[in-house]
Amino acid sequence: MVTETMAEKTPSYAVIDAIIYKHNVQLGGIIPVLQEIQDEFGCVPPEAINRIAQSMNIAATEIYGIVTFYSQFRLKPIGKNLVKVCHGTACHLNGADKVASALAQVTGAKEGETSPDGMFTVERVACLGCCSLAPCISINDEVYGTLSSADIDKAICHCRESGKHPVTD
Amino acid sequence: MENLARTEKDTRWMIRVGLASCGIAAGARKVYAALNDAMANQCSNNVILKQTGCYGMCYNEVLVEVCSPAGESMFYKKVKPEYAERIISEHILNGKPIAEWSIPSDELNGLLSKQKRIVLRNCGIIDPESIEDYIAVGGYSAIKKILDTMSPQDVISEVIRAGLRGRGGAGFSTGTKWKLCRESAGFQKYIICNADEGDPGAFMDRSVLESDPHSVIEGMLIGGYAIGATEGFIYARAEYPLAVQRLEIAIAQARERALVGEGIMGHNFDFQLYLRQGAGAFVCGEETALMMSVEGKRGMPRSRPPFPAQSGLWGKPSNINNVETFASVPWIILNGADAYAAYGTETSKGTKVFALAGKAARSGLIEVPMGITINEIVYDIGGGTSTGLNFKAIQIGGPSGGIIPASMADIPVDYESVNKTGAIMGSGGLIVMDESSCMVDIAKFFLNFTQDESCGKCTFCRIGTLRMAETLDRISNGKGTERDVELLTELAQGVKKASLCGLGQSAPNPILTTLRYFRDEYEKHIYDKKCPAKKCQALITYEIIAGKCKGCQLCTKYCPAGAISGEKKQPHKIDSPKCIRCGLCLSTCRLGAVSVH
């Protein structure tokens, strides 16, 4: 699931169909299908919704309802790196808002936005479950804890220079 | 210390590196690699290097345990890759432990002497990706004992006798729940593990799944046998990629050994197990919403009855338990109900896992007998506050729970005593708050969360939480009016009574408890327009202390509003109207030259 660059594959029916085929044997397979579609394409594109609707015999509106209900799903593609800012209770007490402002400062993207250079999408998440290392963020599913503004600078600069995320140190 | 007993009986040294999410975030993978290299460099064949899960001392990550062949163990804290060569050469090859990097024994004693590890019995000890390790510590012998010697009714009465209550928060008797589902007529039954740990500030289930996934699988097998289910689902939170990965490995290993599948252990018992990932909806932690989600629908709760035991997943009798509940079950079966019930209080038996975080000096994962006091947890285990400021209150039970002030921290932690305070036990999040935490702000934080996560099905929760969040926002912005406290109380009581599911019914708890214990703080916000904890942005101002500022310009670099000005090497100034009060200057200044009041 950890990908260095996200959202680069173009949707094709062959890929979509293969994913549907894999999960449709089980009842309630629609959510696993959507999850894998998003892993593959970085978002759930409209073409995929229509194709799933036809193949799985579920109304497209219903699929759209599922996609918009769960916060995990996105309808629009994201930047090369996905940064999640934890806003759990421990992170909140230890300055998650400051982390978000510092991130906005260095990436150019506020929470919910993609930076103008397309390098970073910053998302606000409820809790990453690393509360003892608050405040924390994750970059492409790798968690960084006990952050200072300087740490954020370093991690983001590294991402930008190398085009990929740094190894945790 | 019994729980540090070696799992392999041989003459080799053992090094354990904690590779759960928090360890990895602190750099444990690099430490592991460095130790591996150091072993190769120094030709020490006499050492086993093992990855383990979380030992619970997250504040000391990266944590490395070195066990001598004689069974003496020593923990190294905050290990860096460059420590590796010395650990191998001095400790292992020369037998001289490096005292300055180790956790002092009094700290270790303080931390562990009041704990009893039942759920966490294997966490940080075995390799979570190895079924052999789990079997070596007695894993899967509980299910064997049951299949060989016990009827489903025997299992249920044993669990009832143990007094185990649901660890997800509600605290319903697990054995009774199983009994109801067993008695329910139906062709197909399901057993579900709720691993959708959505409470912000809680990480018990994540740690258990990352450190000892097989214990949960074994607990589900036992539960499945007891209620007569042939299929099980684990509904895990998608935000926990490592937990999901380790569960997948564990399920595949169990399947390979025919511990999951048909004719388990040669008995007439079939059990299939599937893993489903949540998709980021807090409400799916509610049992009826969770089942909707497994069915592939929007995760919206429905009214009960019918209870899942009668009509659950796809309309079939189903039973849902939490990760911690399942992980307790194999221990109860092997050690007996009496051994389990020996811990805890009259009505709350056994132990409870808590995720201690916030401003605790020693944050991490702990497991304590029920009935321990909050003070014992905060001071003896947690080591007081990390900031040196006074302990002010503890938040228990996440967004559904409440705040218990320090003055009441001598109450025992059991279901009934916690309920009396207006909070709930919840799933085990314990957030320590010091004097820098504002109670209006914390209530606002939780209400924003529940408002955001409300599924929108019932009006009281959908609109009530929004109105409460708006009111709190007004108060923290200095625009609160005399009527607001009364309005909040009225709304809170209405939402509590009339909401459809647990999310709405418990959403007002953070407000009701802060109002009950910290009403003066609300009043200071409303009447004096002051935030005593200096947290609410609209009610504070930042200033640079001219005498301390050396004009290094670090703050100017970080200020997102361009509100700080001054010549290099000269004291700077903050332009108050421009300042957005984000506090970045305060946290970046190395000279302590920024003040807030």
Given as residue ranges, the uncertain stretches of chain B (5+ residues, pLDDT < 50) are 1-8
Secondary structure: number of strands of chain B? 17
Main interface pair? A-B, 55 and 66 residues
Strand order of the largest sheet of chain B: 10-9-13-11-12
What is the number of E strands of chain A? 5
Task: Round the Cα radius of gyration of chain A to an integer and report it.
Answer: 17 Å
The helical percent of chain A reads: 40-55%
Helix content range of chain B: 25-40%
Sheet with the most strands: spatial strand order of chain A: 2-3-1-4-5
Instruction: Give the H and E element order of chain A.
Output: HHHHEHHEEEEH
Distance between the termini of chain B: 49 Å
Radius of gyration of chain B: 26 Å
Q: Calculate the terminal CA-CA distance of chain A, rounded to whole Å.
A: 21 Å
Assembly of the depicted chains: heterodimer
Can you offer a commentary on this structure?
The complex is a heterodimer of chains A (169) and B (597). By secondary structure, chain A is of the alpha+beta class. Chain A is 44% helix and 12% strand. Chain A has helices spanning 13-23, 30-41, 46-56, 60-69, 89-93, 96-107, 149-162; strands at residues 81-86, 113-114, 120-125, 137-139, 142-144. In chain A, a hairpin with a 5-residue loop joins strand 2 (113-114) and strand 3. By secondary structure, chain B is α/β, with parallel strands linked by helices. Helices cover 39% and strands 14% of the residues of chain B. In chain B, helix 2 crosses helix 3 (84-93). Chain B is globular. Chains A and B meet through helix 2, helix 4, helix 5, helix 6 and strand 5 of A and helix 1, strand 7, strand 9, strand 13 and helix 17 of B.
